[in-house]
Amino acid sequence: MSASPSSPASPSITPLTPAAIVTRLRTAGCVFAEDEAELLVGTARDPAELAAMVERRVTGQPLEHVLGWAEFRGLRIAVDVGVFVPRRRTEFLVQQAAALARPGAVVVDLCCGSGALGAALGVSVDRVELHAADIDPAAVRCARRNVADVGGRVYEGDLYEPLPDALRGRVDVLLANVPYVPTEEVGLLPPEARVHEARVALDGGADGLDVLRRVTADAARWLAPGGRLLFETSERQVPYALEAVADGGLVARSVSDEEMYATVVVGTRPS
Known about the structure:
Blueprint: H1 18-27, H2 33-43, H3 47-58, H4 63-67, E1 69-72, E2 75-78, H5 91-100, E3 106-110, H6 116-124, E4 129-134, H7 137-146, E5 153-156, E6 171-176, H8 191-194, H9 210-222, E7 223-233, H10 238-247, E8 251-257, E9 262-268
Parallel strand pairs: 3-4, 3-6, 4-5, 6-7
Antiparallel strand pairs: 1-2, 7-9, 8-9
């Protein structure tokens, strides 16, 4: 039955002004409230969606989960709820890999999360053959969208287990953005990480290096002669990370960028 002219109309959403959004974000503790407000306004498709996005943000959800994407090396990377958000400091890892990779390189991105590293490297280096893997099904779904433009393939499983056997001994660049937060320190992370990101993407075991040791133990079997393993770690973990790489039969070195607060370890399989 159609409504009469006197029937009450559906309630409308009063659009939030940018100033009102900034005030709400700042009250909720968002340090970069103006920048976040601009991103929210630019992403929302209508006033109702904008209001819902602001509400999600002020209740503590990561900005990237609210937006549905994160910026990484100039790319807009899809990031679904619960998926690890790529950190800007990790751009340093991709920068180091891009300097080492040749056109046509075979690249594997382990613990790929959203696939940000592989996607960014695929854009930086011509004609890479990209393979990525993660144990988290939600991350795998994200990664498949993010690496599609560079022809990447994504597998679901634990570290090397789901990779094609044909890759053994052929990998030129092995990226491994492994979790490296010690278990007892996960609870000290900001709520945006410890509440809203998958624990498997954060917890590196008792000393933070459990997953890394599993990666380094088998890396030489997958790397081509002269191939490199690259991963991020904390400054205090560097001596132990270098030891793990050497124990795996690789020649290890580390490089840091103080401005980005980033440390990368590179392990090379001898030719």
